[in-house]
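Form 7-S
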Amino acid sequence: MVPEVPVCSGSFFRIRRGLIIIEKWKKVGDKVFQVYFGIGVVAMGLLAVLVIFSVIARYFFSHSWKELSEFNVTLFAFTTFWGMGINVLKNEHVIIDILYDRVPPAIKRWLSVVNYLIVLAVDLVFTKQGFAYVGVAGKQISQGMEIPMKYMYGIMPMAGVICAVCIVIKIIEFITADLSYFAPKNKVLTKESP
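Output:
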């Protein structure tokens, strides 16, 4: 007698289709991140060039422009706030991991999720306060560039929203990652005696 093979009910195909959709979203996410990161790189490069230019103009030619000085300060603030989400996604933020590396990977996953939920809460407060600040101070006209301050301060809430999206992406990554993702990353440095 030949054993019966169970008929696939289509759940395999639904799972496969779901994985294909996830892979497409990952590719879209990678492209969006490249644009996001590229904007930050261009802003940092422009900031470096403009600061060098303004220093040379001021010290060697005795020329100074209040508009350029104010733009440099605004661009510096832009690069700082713009980098918040990049640092979250690339794990470039400050972490003291002496004790964290000793935690078992299964616990480390949920510790990371709780940690990022706290970071998300702080970011949401920052974003809310950023919108409130832009609403109050954004009506003033800047002295250097003579534009409404909302264009200068608007980076705070905008970067807060972008950072919140990055934090949620990171939390999802923690929940779906393999336990090897949470393996200790630091090696113990000891001297071996000959």
